[in-house]
């Protein structure tokens, strides 16, 4: 029997074994996903969790060639250490009932197992899909409260002078805006945290799909933060205007329900504009040919 036949036989027997290891790991996380579906993703700030999971599965399918790559032994100690760290983090999360650790452990477990079973080349293909799972994990409530309050105050502070510039009688007390006979409270939904997290996931996917440099991808991703905040300010301004001209029922009714979709469309459009501007800047910096 020739050497290539022996190596082919070893790969054919190793593939079912490697696939079986991933099936075991998937079974380990079934209770975690059940808890995410039944509790974590019911929180309004993380209702996009199932979509993140679907995108992750699509990314895996898109890079399914990694499961046919031969394993290499160059960095196995690092892979094993990453896998063990992930499993310890998982156990700690289950015992302490901290979903951030339990679900977040999936990232190092996935990376460590892939590197150990399929090698460095496969790991490179899986880095972004695994990192994308960070948007899957609901943060602890204290972190949500810590971020939400400053965001609400920022949106309220920015919307007040914008309305005053156009001559509207507006004043502010904390996160409450007063316009004429109406008072508009900047609630948690208007803080932008929910839209910021979901839009950052969209921005990360959009940047990843661009065939460009890592610098441009990073700029595209980070631009989501100011774009999302500005979009929430615009949403609050429009909500105040509709309430002032058409009454509280109009402001809290149709527009308030569709404001999330409005924000998503505006933000995605702004992201495309940033992409176009970066492309034009890159072309203008290129040396002209004489």
Summary tags:
elongated; mainly alpha; 290 residues; 12 helices; three-stranded antiparallel β-sheet; disordered N terminus; 74% helix; 4% strand
Provide the fold topology.
Elements lengths: L2 H26 L1 H9 L10 H14 L13 H21 L2 H6 L1 H13 L1 H13 L8 H25 L4 E4 L2 E4 L2 E4 L7 H17 L4 H9 L1 H23 L1 H38 L5
Helix pairs in contact: 1-6, 3-7, 4-6, 6-7, 8-11, 9-10, 9-11, 9-12, 11-12
Mean pLDDT: 79
Largest sheet: 3 strands, antiparallel
* Percentage beta strand: under 5%
Helix/sheet category: mainly alpha
Low-confidence parts, pLDDT < 50 over ≥5 residues? Answer: 1-13
The largest beta-sheet arranges its strands as 1-2-3
Gap between N and C termini = 62 Å
**Radius of gyration from CA coordinates:** 24 Å
How helical, in percent, are the residues?
over 70%
Q: What's the β-strand tally?
A: 3
What's the number of helices?
12
Gross morphology: elongated
Structure description:
The chain has 290 residues and is mainly α. 74% of the residues lie in helices and 4% in strands. It has helices at residues 3-28, 30-38, 49-62, 76-96, 99-104, 106-118, 120-132, 141-165, 193-209, 214-222, 224-246, 248-285; strands at residues 170-173, 176-179, 182-185. It has a three-stranded antiparallel sheet. The protein starts with a helix and ends in a 5-residue tail after the last helix.
């Amino acid at each position: 029997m020739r050497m290539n036949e022996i190596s082919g036989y070893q790969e054919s027997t190793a593939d079912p074994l490697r696939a079986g290891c991933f099936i075991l790991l998937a079974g380990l996380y079934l209770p975690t996903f059940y808890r995410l579906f039944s509790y974590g993703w019911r929180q309004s700030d993380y209702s996009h969790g199932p979509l993140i999971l679907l995108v992750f599965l699509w990314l895996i399918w898109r890079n399914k060639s990694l499961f046919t790559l031969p394993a290499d032994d160059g960095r196995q100690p690092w892979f094993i250490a990453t896998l063990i760290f992930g499993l310890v983090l998982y156990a700690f999360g289950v015992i302490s009932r901290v979903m951030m650790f339990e679900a977040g452990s999936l990232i190092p477990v996935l990376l460590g197992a892939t590197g150990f079973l399929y090698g460095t080349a496969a790991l490179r293909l899986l880095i972004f899909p695994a990192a994308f799972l960070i948007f899957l994990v609901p943060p602890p409530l204290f972190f949500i409260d810590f971020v939400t309050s400053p965001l609400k105050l920022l949106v309220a502070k920015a919307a007040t002078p914008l309305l005053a510039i156009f001559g509207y009688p507006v004043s502010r007390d904390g996160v409450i805006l007063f316009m004429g006979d109406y008072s508009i409270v900047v609630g948690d939904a208007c803080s932008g945290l929910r839209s910021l997290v979901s839009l950052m996931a969209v921005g990360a996917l959009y940047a990843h799909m661009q065939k460009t440099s890592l610098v441009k991808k990073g700029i595209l991703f980070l631009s989501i933060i100011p774009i999302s905040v500005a979009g929430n300010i615009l949403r609050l301004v429009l909500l105040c205007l509709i309430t002032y001209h058409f009454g509280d029922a109009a402001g809290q009714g149709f527009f308030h329900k569709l404001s999330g979709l409005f924000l998503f469309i505006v933000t995605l459009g702004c992201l495309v504009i940033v992409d176009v501007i970066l492309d034009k800047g890159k072309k203008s910096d290129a040396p002209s040919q004489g």
